[in-house]
Design brief:
The protein starts with a helix and ends with a helix. It has three helices and no strands. The chain has helices at 2-28, 67-97, 100-103. The protein is mainly α and 107 residues long.
Length: 107
Amino acid sequence: RSSDLAKTDAGVQVLAQMGLSFAIFEAANRDQWAWGVQKNLEGESPAEFPGDFRNGALDFGWDKMSDEMKTKKRAIELNNGRAAQMGILGLMVHEKLGNIDAILPTY
């Protein structure tokens, strides 16, 4: 009985730690420009869209792309994220079904 309580307490602690971590990550990755941390001379955010976290340190040619190419690249990235989420969901379903070995070979 005490081992069940320990597992429950540990589970609660892990979930609390995960929740706190997610909250910190989310706060750190919000649009810092909207909070007034750094704005251009007109007082506007330099971010082109929500989730634009570029800080000027790395340039992979984004500013040189046409608006059409930027929209296309963002759509591709969004679809890749969706595909990754579906893949993880598929693995979780097969793990619960008990046939994960049929998908992922063991070595």
